[in-house]
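note to self — DONT lose this again. spent like an hour looking for the file last time. sequence + predicted structure for the chain T wanted, 203 res
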Amino acid sequence: MEGLLNLLLWVPGLLLALTFHEFSHGMVAYKLGDPTPERAGRLTLNPLAHLDVMGTIALFLFHFGWAKPVPINPHFLRNPKRDMIYIAIAGPAANFILAIIAGIIVKILSTIGQSGTIPWYMMVYTMDINVILMAFNLIPIPPLDGSKILFGLTNINPRTIYNLERMGPMILLGIIILGSMSGFNILFIFISPAMMIFHQIFI
């Protein structure tokens, strides 16, 4: 019963985090001249437009999943190299803002003696999920946003970028599986400092 309650408490925060993350990618791309996200129906805050069926199932089964990537066509962008950085940053930035808002609510609830209540836990989970999604996506491994930021800031050979993007998902999956089997998740090295900072500030 406790496990089911915890699940119900973190699902709203997860849907919020994934929805705003993908919506922000699409909105920034649209503002920079790419009509593709609008044509794909991704400029909406309806979670159903952004959820991937297999990614959602994986989230519940393995605590790792994904949303549907927002389609972007760089040919519509006025400055593709620069604009792709802005588009990539938009998702993690949205999660950062949501984490701050949730953290402030946690702080307020704690101040008025509501720590340990259901709303308090829901806000803590919402903060944690957004921090995790922000930090995870900033890791510079394709197809994560961090790789797009890295490619935009450097002069890596296009062929090298192509090879990295082709191999990136397998590398990322291998790291996750290895971490799950060994009990030592390398990705947690990137995520834990952000988690510690938010917990020290707001909890």
